[in-house]
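Posting this for the archive.
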Amino acid sequence: MKITWRNGEVPEGMKIKQVYGLVFTTDGRMLIRIEYVNGKRNYTLAGGRPEVYDKDRVATLRRELIEEVNTEIEDEVIMVGYQEIDEENGKPAYAQVRMTAIIKNIGDKYPDPDTGDTYDRLLTTPEKAIKLINWGEVGEKQIMRAKEIAMERLGIKAFRDYDEEV
């Protein structure tokens, strides 16, 4: 399988199989989801696959953030880019979209209606998120691009270096 990071919009006709959020607090901390696999912490982004009833990618992101980490985001949601996934099996490559926004509210934890799992949540710096999520160069590129957009378009001026489980 070949995974390539692409800034910007998904090309016309490319299937989108996932929409995930690189979302920030106003003090510049990024929200990452914590799940437990075989008793070990696994860090990832919140998000999931589009459903037929989702109006668009933003609706998918909003729904998934509520379902997985009970988090609401502000109105402005910005496309960061996508992971182009080529399974090298002769089928067309597909996209895993990444979007960014400012967090409006983080509610209490409760079970994901799809899986029944309750996820912990961590607010951390983008740089620490790169290490914790551990997706290599592709992960670093998407997180750093989201950080640039947060500074340029979402008005985040500083990135507080304080980890907090919420």
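The beta strands are 2-7, 16-24, 30-37, 40-44, 46-48, 71-86, 94-106, 120-124, 164-165. The first helix runs from residue 57 to 69.
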